[in-house]
Design goal:
It holds the Pfam family Acyl_transf_1. This is [acyl-carrier-protein] S-malonyltransferase. It is an enzyme of class 2 (transferase). By secondary structure, this protein is of the alpha/beta class. The chain folds into two domains: about 65-195 and about 300-430, Malonyl-Coenzyme A Acyl Carrier Protein, domain 2, CATH 3.40.366; about 200-290, Alpha-Beta Plaits. Helix content is about 40%, strand content about 10%. It has helices at about 50-55, 85-90, 90-105, 110-115, 120, 125-145, 150-155, 165-170, 175-200, 215-230, 265-275, 300-310, 345-355, 360-370, 385-395, 415-425, and strands at about 30-35, 65-70, 155-160, 205-210, 245-255, 255-260, 280-285, 375-380, 405-410, 430. The strands form three sheets. The protein has a four-stranded parallel sheet, sandwiched between helices. The chain has a four-stranded antiparallel sheet with strand order 5-6-4-7. A two-stranded antiparallel sheet has the order 1-10. Helix 15 (about 385-395) links the parallel strand 8 and strand 9 (about 405-410). Helix 6 (about 125-145) packs antiparallel against helix 9, helix 9 packs antiparallel against helix 12 (about 300-310) and helix 12 packs antiparallel against helix 13 (about 345-355). The protein is globular and about 55 Å long.
Length: about 425
């Protein structure tokens, strides 16, 4: 298994005239202490010259700091107008990226993101590339405008389902153009697979979140496995009707899973589980027009495998493998195994299988929190769902600090200062456990 590597400690860029709040750390943080120097000087808003000089610090002496994870959201967080604040706040940086997005997908996706209507943006074909592209646009703005360097500031990346493709870009395993193209083709294949199931077998397909108390989680998962039988396995029979293909698509937290498949079949399943357990979990239909991470998505697995077997579309890499494996890549956690990818071949295999298999999000967060001792978590992309899921596991609510670190999200330009200041304030904290 690839260990999470240490990263060089460099003060983060914050806006001129803005200073970290005093009184850190809280007295209650008994298991944490500051390393020297205790107050690394904040930098001003980064320029191109400061960015280039900071990148050379990767070979300098490394200081202890809390391990930091960068995570990205999945489908369902899309919102009409989600690019507008970034275009208004950072037009010189954002506009070329938006033009690149439209060029890669081959149509004005930015118009759909900006003007909608929502029913168009919510379609899988549009929602997936829109979310992934917006997430990377935010990351690129942090890099260009604030001197944020993932390779220097982050120890591990991960993404929820669709978000894994943004995480692979942030880690250095894929180029933005390649990942966005892959997301676009994956989305088309997923939408087509859903239409095929509807046309050939009838019924309505989608996803339903099931929320329960933590003490009921394991019995709930076991009961669902008992009722769905072999359809919960990736090796389920090909001749099984899609109506019977119900899968636990996501295990999101200690009290939430997501079921994927035929909606009527899911409702029946939830009713049976309630009777079987003598417990009444809450079921909520999600904003999804496809049953992601179920056997119905199997055609998308083949599409992703085919693209991953080819060469890059990025300028200057046309003859190179679409997946890179650089020595300085930041480890990225797989949705399928809940552990970092260990080789290029494994990355390709798991990324394709991810279309159909269960997203092990809860296990991923527990692994990073409990085994790798990640103490700072930064979500980048639309919506706060990812931050809330992470915070639910590692013990934060709202803006509270956690175990000497914290959980933050950048979904809007107004949140940048809080996140960069929070990282600055916790930069010198080391875990003594």
């Amino acid at each position: 298994m690839i260990p999470l590597r240490p990263a060089p400690c460099r003060p983060l860029a914050v806006c001129a005239g803005r200073h970290p709040r005093a009184g850190w750390p809280p007295a209650a943080s008994r298991r944490w202490r500051r390393s020297q120097p205790s107050q690394p000087p904040p930098l001003c808003h980064a320029s191109s010259s400061s960015s280039s000089s900071s990148s050379s610090s990767s070979g300098s002496a490394r200081s202890a700091r809390p391990k930091t994870a960068l995570f990205f959201p999945g489908q369902g967080v899309q919102k009409v107008g989600m690019l507008t604040p970034w275009l208004e706040a950072f037009p010189r940086t954002a506009k070329p990226i938006v033009q690149e997005i439209d060029h890669v997908v081959g149509y004005k996706l930015s118009d759909i993101i900006e003007a909608g209507p929502s029913k168009d943006l919510n379609l899988t074909d549009h929602a997936q590339p829109a979310i992934m592209a917006t997430s990377i646009l935010i990351l690129r703005i942090l890099e260009a405008e604030f001197g944020f360097r993932t390779s220097e500031r982050v120890d591990v990346t991960l993404g929820h389902s669709l978000g894994e493709f943004a995480a692979l870009v942030a880690s250095g395993y894929m180029q933005f153009q390649d990942s966005l193209h892959l997301v676009q083709e994956r989305a088309k294949a997923m939408a087509a697979a859903t239409r095929r199931a509807e046309e050939e077998h009838g019924g309505e397909y989608g996803m339903v979140a099931v929320v329960t108390e933590p003490e009921y989680m394991q019995p709930l998962v076991a009961a669902i496995g008992k009722f769905v039988g072999s359809s919960s396995s990736p090796d389920s029979s090909e001749d099984r009707s899609p109506i019977d293909h119900v899968r636990i698509a996501n295990i999101n937290s200690k009290n939430q899973i997501v079921l994927s498949g035929n909606i009527e079949r899911i409702r029946t399943l939830v009713a049976n589980v309630r009777q079987f357990l003598g417990h009444d979990p809450r079921a909520v239909r999600l904003k999804s027009d496809s049953p992601f991470h179920s056997p119905i998505m199997r055609p998308a697995v083949a599409v992703v495998r085919d693209i991953l077997s080819g060469t890059s579309r990025a300028p200057g890499r046309e003859r190179e493998d679409v997946v890179a494996w650089p020595d300085d890549a930041v480890p990225c956690v797989s949705n399928v195994t809940a552990r970092p990818f260990e080789s290029k071949a494994q990355l390709k295999d798991l990324l394709a299988r991810q279309c159909e298999e269960t997203v092990q999000w809860w296990d991923s967060i527990r692994y990073l929190d409990q085994e790798q001792r990640v103490r700072r978590w930064v979500g980048i992309g639309p919506g706060k769902v990812g931050r809330n899921l992470v915070g639910k596991e590692v013990g934060m609510r709202g803006k509270d600090t956690v175990k000497g670190g914290g959980v933050w999200a950048i979904t809007d330009p107004s949140e940048i200062e809080e996140v960069l200041t929070g990282l600055q304030e916790t930069e010198g904290l080391v875990d003594e456990e």
